[in-house]
Specification:
With 167 residues, the chain is of the alpha/beta class. The protein has three helices and twelve strands. It has an eight-stranded mixed β-sheet, with helices on both faces. Strands 4-5 form a two-stranded antiparallel sheet. The longest helix is centred in the N-terminal third of the chain and has 15 residues.
Length: 167
């Protein structure tokens, strides 16, 4: 089911967003968490001249930096099982035009529940005002997430296997 949903989300993404020549941030899945397989998005993006950057975590500063994803040989698993690039060209946050955000859940207002460390909220604050923040979810939206913090940044849209909701 995960592979089917991942493919459907990939198709929805490329049908509804013009990514050609754009810089995007794409998280890579933590396999043990059964996250959406975003490698299919990366594979398709290569055919559209999309510049795909993937995050690398810095647990001292609690921030993400992005590195251009050119091949899977760049990757290694960090101590939490997250595939990350070990080397490559850095892409500044303000150069990103789309950030695809991992999440556990999102609500009809565009709020999301992530992993609780604020990595993505800190990243999104550094992006340009025109950058689009898009969640990828296998599940429908919740009516409300009630523990939203003032530092939480809302999504612009959420892509699910059968629909896209724009906020």
């Amino acid at each position: 089911m995960l592979d089917k949903y991942s493919e459907q989300i990939c198709e929805m993404l490329f049908k509804n967003f013009k990514l050609e020549g754009k810089y995007i941030s794409l998280f890579l899945p933590i396999e043990r968490h059964f996250e959406i397989n975003t490698y299919c998005i990366w594979e398709k993006a290569k055919n559209f001249d999309v510049f795909v950057a993937v995050p690398k975590t810095n647990f001292q500063t609690m921030e993400l930096k992005h590195i251009l994803f050119e091949n899977e040989n760049q990757l290694e698993l960090n101590q939490f099982g997250i595939p990350e690039p070990k080397k490559g060209r850095i892409v500044a946050a303000d150069k990103l035009e789309y950030v695809f955000v991992p999440l556990y859940a999102a609500d009809i207002g565009g709020h999301r529940v992530g992993y609780g460390k604020g990595f993505y909220d800190r990243l999104l604050k550094k992006c340009s005002p025109s950058c689009q923040f898009i969640g990828l979810s296998m599940f429908d939206l919740e009516p409300i997430i009630d523990d939203v913090l003032p530092t939480d940044i809302k999504l612009h849209a959420c892509i699910m296997p059968d629909k896209i909701v724009r906020f």
